[in-house]
User: What shape does this take?
Amino acid sequence: MKPAASTVYLVLQVCFLALISSRNIYGKQVWPIPYRRFDRRPDPDPYCQALYTFCPTGDPDGRIPYMRDSDVISVFRLQTPVWEFKYGDILGKFLGNCTFPHEREDTAAPFWCNQGAACFFEGIDDLHWQQNGTLEKVGEISGEQFNDLARWVQEDNKTGIYYETWTVRSDPGANSTTWFESYDCSQFVHRTYRKMAELGAKLSSKTQTNYTKIYLYSGEPTYLGDDNTIFGQSSMKTLATDIKNFYHSFQPHQSMIQFMLSLMEVYKKVVLEKTFYLYYNFEYWHLPMKAPYIQITYEEVPLPH
Assistant: This one.
């Protein structure tokens, strides 16, 4: 009976730790809110169709080739600011498809197409990167390190399933509080660099790396609930309607007139009413917005050593 009792104790302990993970021993909220991980990546909903194919020659679960331990692999940094892509209004399509939800008649709650994943495919479009961005060698790794990195990428890919655009902070100052961290393309690159350094890779100390980041600024956020508690109960109807009305202003593919009207609604809600509804970890939070409200930066981040 002792092993069984120990097993029960372990399970209960793990559950308890999961419940208090975002609060300290005094019950006070700990910031930033940890990004939620999952056991596996669910199948995408057929409703979510990418305008541009995300994986050029495969899928997020495609097999990464195995290298011999003695192989030497060059690591290149490919970079271009998001506004320099030459695929039309890609930023507008991108924001509409994953940063904000869609409206569907068959669902009471806003519908999110925000799965994010890393893709493996062969080859580099050298001409595009040389003409529009940066193609620079930053280091080398061994075949053994590559194989370890490949296993880590697949695990990271399987457990971190949704994209999050916003970094939410209390103010632009150096000592500000971060309420929520983004989980976007640049964050994946940072994690990968750190993993390579952990595995012993030698990365360039002279390389300058810059990343586009989007910040929201607010006072301390308030937790509101998830889809079931907000959109599944009549007592929350007012809040549910307010959230849906807020996101309606951010719908993609609007005409110019609709866009101007929506922009005025966004200004009214965010600046005048100082309100933003953030969807994070499949839960909704109210952000009491404050100046400068939103900021897009291009920041330098050194490579790890």
About this structure: The CA atoms of residues 81 and 283 lie 30 Å apart. Helices lie at 2-20, 90-99, 126-132, 143-159, 185-198, 227-231, 237-248, 256-272.
